[in-house]
Each structure stands twice: as C-alpha cells, then as structure tokens.
Design goal:
Radius of gyration: 21 Å
Number of domains: 1
Largest sheet: 5 strands, parallel
Number of strands: 16
Shape: globular
CATH superfamily: Aconitase, domain 3
Distance between the termini: 45 Å
CATH architecture: 2-Layer Sandwich
Mean pLDDT: 96
CATH class: Alpha Beta
Number of helices: 17
Low-confidence stretches: none
Strand content: 15-25%
Structural class: alpha/beta
Strand order of the largest sheet: 4-3-2-5-6
Length: 433
C-alpha cells in the first residue's frame, strides 16, 4: 500500500499551507510546525495554537499496526461501517514470533501457534484494503522506513517506537488502537499541540561512536520524562552528516525519553536512502519542495528564539555510551563503565548480547557489528555470552547473507533469529541461569 499519488498531493499542497502557517504565527517556522500545520484536519485557525495547551485535530497520512495491537483495532474498525480504510494502512506480523533456536524453526513454530491470529489479520486486511506483511517479513519500523516513510509526512502507529520514521523527516507518533481506528475511518485525530525541543548537532561522528550514542547521550540529559509532551527536532551540520537509518535509530529511541516523536530535516542522506530503496520519484518530489522540509534559516541561526528548549552536542567529541542498568537514562561513557560497575556494584557478567531490534537492525548497524566480529576472529576469539542477531527486514537479511555477515556471526557462536522483535520485547526462550 504505497500511495505515490498521496505523496504528490501532500507535496503539492505543502508550500501554501506552510506559508499560511508562517503568516499566522508571524515568525520563522521549525520543521515540526511546518509539518503539523500542513496536516490540520480542518482549515487553518484564526489564531496560532498554543504549544503544550491547545488540543488540535490532525489528519495523518498513514497508519501502521503490529500484530499484537492490530487485532483489537481491526475488530473495532470492522464495526465502523466502512468498506475500506480512509488512509493507506498496514499490518506487520513481528511481535508474536518467539525467539528460541533460530529463524527457520522459530518461524515455523510461530506460524503454527499463531495461525488463527495470522489468518484473521490477513483476511481482514484483505477485506479493507490494508497492506499485510506476513511473519518473517520484518520488524514494523524497519519495513516502514524502507517502504512507506516520506519526508514531511505524518503517520501514526500502534507501537511506541513508531517515531523511527523520523529518520526520513516524518512526524510519526505511537498511539493506541482506538486512535488508529479513528484515522482509518476518516475521522480527525486529536493531539495536544506539542512543545518543541531542539537538539543542535555539530561536528561529525568518528571512530566507533555511532548514531545510537547520540540518543543515549540525549537520554542522559533529558531523562525518561524530559521529552514528555514534546517533539524533539534535530538540526545542524552534524545532523546532515548522519545516515538516514542512523537518524531513524535516534528518533526510534525518543520513546525512551517520553517524546511525542523525534525528527530530522530532509537532506542528501535521506535522498540517497530513498533512491537506494526504490523511491527515486519520492526523492525527486522532496527535492522540489526542499525548503519546506527543513526549518527556516532563521531558526537554525538563533534556535533559542524558536524552540522551547535547546540542547547542543558536538559529535566530534562524543564517545560510545552504555545506558542502564535498570533505566535507559542512566548514561555512562564506555571509558568510565568499568569504574561505574565497581562503584555501584552493578552486575558485571554480560549474559546476552543482541544485535538488532527496531532500533539497530539496518544494514549499517549489522555491517558495523560484523566488522568487530571479523576483528575478533583474527585474534582467535569466540563469544563468551549468548549472542543473537535479529535482522530488521527480509531485505536486510538477504543483503547480510549475500555479503557473508551471517556466516561471520555464526563462526563465533552467533544465532541469527527471525526478522522480528524477539528478545527485545521479551519474546525469547532464555538459555541462561
């Protein structure tokens, strides 16, 4: 359910809507404001909406659902009297597959155990014109990034990590099933106008520091509640230097700071990713309205005037972080981890390692991990803890198999699991004490 005509319509209407919003507010706009005001359910208001106060009706472009939350939502939708969903919608079977021994066996078991659920989701999706991604096709957020997300769009999803699509410049918000039903039925979706937190990124990542370390650092600064009621907008030269999938990782984990969602401005890295995933026409359309898919220059030049809160991070000085234990906002630089483990009497035994989940399952993530494993092999090392890998999609799995990464992982004791959530959501059979 990839609707290119919808994207054309959004982009055709966006310049006029953004200009109207700028005139209404009377000052330069953040990217967040441009997208939100371009997706109002009704006409533009007489006065600007107050951030953090006014409730606003929006008209999202898309809906995405995972198999655990889609069941009740679609049962409810079936009573709405509609013959077809009002907006492009998809269902992704990724949550009900238990990781136990490996991709092939686990997928076969899931298809048997969950047959009734899968059959229901498949048939009701077919009835109402909803895209259905079968078990093993991939994790919802990676599949959305590869196939459906587009810069300047707005979507909701029945999963907390829906903001992953912010890596392609989309306002993507996690919601409950009832919200999804409203939008699929063609009704307005209500949201309190969010505050906007700006994160200015300067410099460039270097060494083994990754995009994941950006959000781990931000979590340490804002805490698990610091993003509540706000959209986090990343900007600056450092943001433009990050890959689209890396941006997705940062936006994905905005959920861990309570953010409504997170997003990056459209840039060359997003354009390249769209082209690499077969969406060259979307990239061309986005290029045509590029100025409307980025914050106004005045905002970038003086962010304190336009954001409710501003953080600044020099990527060149950032080092790898480890967050936890017990809470995702306990951020510790790797250089200080051993010292912190001893001082706080944290568990020192690393029992399980997971490469993947919706946060880190792109080709970029897995290829970096494979590089480390190759280095370990050259030194005659093996994994001393349980070591699992969950590719984000069938496209990622096929590509890492083609490039020999699966063999690399297995040679040190790694187990490649199904393209699904698995251990990250507790869907795994633990083989530890």
């Amino acid at each position: 359910v990839f609707d290119l005509d919808l994207i054309r319509k959004v982009y055709a209407e966006m310049p006029a809507k953004v200009n109207a919003a700028r005139q209404l507010i009377g000052k330069p706009l953040t990217l967040t404001e441009k997208i939100l005001y371009a997706h109002l359910f009704g006409a533009i208001p007489q006065t600007p909406f107050a951030r953090g106060k006014d409730y606003v009706d929006f008209a999202p472009d898309r809906v995405a659902m995972q198999d655990a939350t889609a069941q009740m939502a679609l049962l409810q939708f079936s009573t709405a009297g509609r013959s077809k969903v009002a907006v492009p919608s998809t269902v992704h079977c990724d949550h009900l597959i238990q990781a136990k021994t490996g991709a092939v066996a686990d997928l076969a078991t899931a298809n048997e155990v969950n047959k009734e659920v899968y059959d229901f989701l498949s048939s009701i999706s077919n009835k109402y014109g909803i895209g259905f991604w079968k078990p093993g096709a991939g994790i919802i957020h990676q599949v959305v990034l590869e196939n459906y997300a587009f810069p300047g769009g707005m979507m909701i999803g029945t999963d907390s990590h829906t903001p992953n699509a912010g890596g392609l410049g989309m306002v993507a918000i996690g919601v409950g099933g009832a919200d999804a039903v409203d939008v699929m039925a063609g009704l307005a979706w209500e949201l309190k106008m969010p505050k906007i937190i700006g994160v200015k990124l300067t410099g460039r990542l270097n060494g083994w520091t990754s995009c994941k370390d950006v959000i781990l650092w931000v979590a340490g600064q804002l805490t698990v509640k610091g993003g509540t009621g706000a959209i986090v907008e990343y900007f600056g030269e450092g943001a433009d230097s990050m890959s689209a999938t890396g941006k997705g990782t940062v936006c994905n984990m905005g959920a861990e700071i309570g953010a409504t969602c997170s997003l990056f401005a459209y840039d060359e890295k997003m354009s390249a990713y769209l082209k690499a995933t077969g969406r060259e026409e979307v990239a061309q359309l986005a290029d045509g309205i590029r100025e409307h898919l980025r914050p106004d220059e005045e905002v970038i030049g003086d962010p304190l005037k336009y954001y409710d809160q501003v953080l600044e991070l020099n990527l060149s000085e950032l080092e790898p972080y480890v967050n936890g234990p017990f809470t995702p906002d306990l951020a510790t630089p790797v250089s200080k981890l051993a010292e912190a483990v001893k001082a706080n009497n944290w568990p020192a035994k690393l029992e399980v390692a997971l490469i993947g989940s919706c946060t880190n399952s792109s080709y970029e993530d897995i290829s970096r991990s494979a590089s480390i494993v190759k280095n370990a092999i050259s030194k005659g090392l093996k994994a001393n803890s349980e070591f699992t890998i969950t590719p984000g999609s069938e496209l990622v799995r096929f590509t890492i198999e083609r490039d020999g990464f699966i063999d690399t992982f297995q040679s040190v004791g790694g187990v490649v699991l199904a393209n699904a959530c698995g251990p990250c959501i507790g869907q795994w059979a633990r083989h530890i004490d």
